Structures are given as C-alpha cells and as structure tokens.
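Hello again, I could really use a second opinion on something today. I've been staring at a protein lately and its backbone has me curious. Can you walk me through what the tokens say about the fold? Take your time with it, there's no hurry, and the full record follows here:
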Amino acid sequence: MTQNDFNQQLLTFLDTSPTPFHATKNIVEACLSAGFEVLEERDSWALKPGGRYVVTRNQSSVIAFTLPAEGDVTATGFRMSGAHTDSPCLKVKTNPDQKGQGFLRLGVEVYGGALLSTWFDRDLSVAGRVSYRDLSGGVRHALINFERAIGTVPNLAIHLNREANKGVEINAQNHLPIVLMQQEDGAQSFADLLKGQLEAQGSTDVSEVLEHECFAYDTQTAAVIGFKDDFIASARLDNLLSCFIGLKSLLDAPQAVPSLLVCNDHEEVGSMSASGAQGPFLQSVLKRIAGQEERYQQMIAASMMVSCDNAHGIHPNYASYHDNNHAPLLNAGPVIKLNANQRYASNSESSAWFRLACQQAGVEVQSFIMRSDLACGSTIGPITSAELGVRTIDVGVPQFAMHSVRELAGSRDAYMLYRVLKCFNSLPDIA
C-alpha cells in the first residue's frame, strides 16, 4: 500500500466516523471484509487456531484479534495496540430543546477537554445512537447521521463586545447552544427531527424516540492540505487517526504472531466505564482467550501493548511551550511519549522494543517529554498497563491544535507509524 492510498482511506474513515458508534461500526465492517468473525459477549466462544475475531461493547468500543495457526498464544503473547474512539466535542442534552426569539436551539454539554472557541461559526451536523420503541412495543437501537449541516453556534459580533480579541470567556450553558432553525414556538422538537431522520434512513417501525446519545460535529471534510500537501486537516484526528493506523496494521501484518487491537470509548472523560480502558472489557476478552488463570498470566507476561495517542508537535508560533530536546516535528516520524510521573506508560524496556520495530521499518523515531513546569496529559496506556500488568509503551503521531474542532497532523507520519506497527505485530518472542 502506498502512502497516498493509505491517506485516502484514512480521510474516508475520518469523514464516516463522526461518533464512537460510527467509528466502531466502520472498524467492524473492515474486519468482516478481511475475513474476521464477529463474536458476541453473551455467547460461548469456540476459538480456532488461525482464527480472526472481532467483538464490540456498547457499540462504541471494539477489540479485534488474530490467533496463530500453530503454537500456543500463552507462549508468544499478543502484540497489542490500543487507541480510543471518542474525541472532545459538544454532546446534545437529553431534553435539548431551547425556544425563544423565534429560534429552536439545542442545549449541549461539553464532552471532554474541547477547545471551545473553535466550535463557533462552523457548519455543524449531528450524529449518534437513538433508542426507540417500535410499533410492537419493543426497544430498538439505531445509528443516525444527519450528514448535512443542520445548525451552527454563531459568534457575537465584535461591535457588541469590543474586547473580544483580548479573550472571551465562554459560558457553556449560555453561549454554546446550537441554532437549528427559525420556527413558531412548539412547532418541532429535536425528538421529532430524530424520528424523521430514522424514517429517512429506513427505520419504518418507529413509534416513539425513548433516548439518544448524539454529538455535534463539523461537516467540513478531512483533507490533505498545505502548499506541498504536507498536512492532514480533520476533526477527530485525536484519536481516530490512531484507531485507523492500528486497524490497518492489524489487517495487513502477517499472522505468525498473535495480534490484537483495542479501541476504547470514554478516554477523553477518564476511561471509567464498562467500555472504557479502566473497565473490564479487554481483560475479559483476554481471559476468555486464555481459558485458565495460569494461562492468562503467562500470556500477559509474554505480551506487549503499544498505546497510540497523538503527541504535541512543536508549534512554530508557540515554540516556547516545548522542551527543546523533546519537541517532535511533524512528518519526522512517530513519537515515544515519556513522563517521570507515569502519565505515560513508556519505560526503557518497552521503548527499546519499539525502537527496534522502527529500525526494522526504516522509520525515524522521536521523543516527547512535557516541559517540567507544565502539567502533562495522559492516555489509555497507564490505565491498561495497571489493569492488566502488561508491558506498555505510549507513542503517537505529532499534531497541532489538539482538541480543536479541526486538528492538523503531518501527511507522512500516519503512514510511517502504520509501517512500524506492522513490524511490531510481527516481532517474535519479547523476552
């Protein structure tokens, strides 16, 4: 696969994954096209040598794994990569209708650490999961996506706030409701719009919308930009870019060594959920694969996890926010993320194995350490490492504008990390 082919597939994945539910659906469909078999958590599993399997939880987290045709998985362990399906955004409230001055607006909550100023004056749509009562009285769930721009959050004119360019305090309750339409009071509700969208998408059995988990998203499509096509600009690069890299490296790597991809939901809000990294999803799947506690512990000891989440590339307009010796450049290769206080799970052992994989792939590698006088973020890496006891390294692609409605990464970095993870998935015994 060429870099151009990879990037075009990445852009499509980004555009068709406006929510964790849609990202998970797209990952499952890619696995099915590659010959994977879907497992259901409530069923008994009869795993076969050489099998390729995928399982989901809450329709928003997914695990895909391959088993060796020969040999014992407890001896080799898994080469695992992990990412997360969620991104900071505006989540539509359960009862979102706000009516006044002749407008229907949607009340929203801020999901995660969103860079709020970037959400103003964008062409926004809404997507998510809707639960409804069907005509027979049962409960069904369906994904919806309005796809077109149905609303916006207009800025206040500078004439009404002459100090706007000195910084504006954004009140999430008052300033972020999404303006949907002009209408007479009581004419339509958001529930009416959801019911109409379900019917437009083919759900003809909708009696009543019971609940929804819907998110606003920017309709501007992902693109390769820059005078020399140096950049990829898109919503949700953090962290759908890593989900896609992990997926492609799993599908394209030789199956001689067992490989696994986990993409968890809820990382941006702490990971403490049934489908988050601090929940039991991954451990549950691994224990079912091993079958016995002793075999599970042997398998974990032989395994290694690469936690993939984007890194802070050095921004030319804000270079002073970086430690000059650990300031990753865009399009200069993947980044090992380190922190003395275990905000990242990397250590010298796991870093050494990753550097070996980079050498085998012919890819340069960089390092990121936060300035000592700034607080450091974290990832699913330390959580997964602590929950499982598995050796873990935190890596990522450098990017700008993290948590903006539209982020920026290098157009060559994702393909480089894909090549490295393919090599990592083929590493023999990691002693």
Remarks:
- The mean pLDDT is 96.
- Residues 358 and 420 are 5 Å apart (CA to CA).
- The radius of gyration is 22 Å.
- The chain has eleven helices and 20 strands.
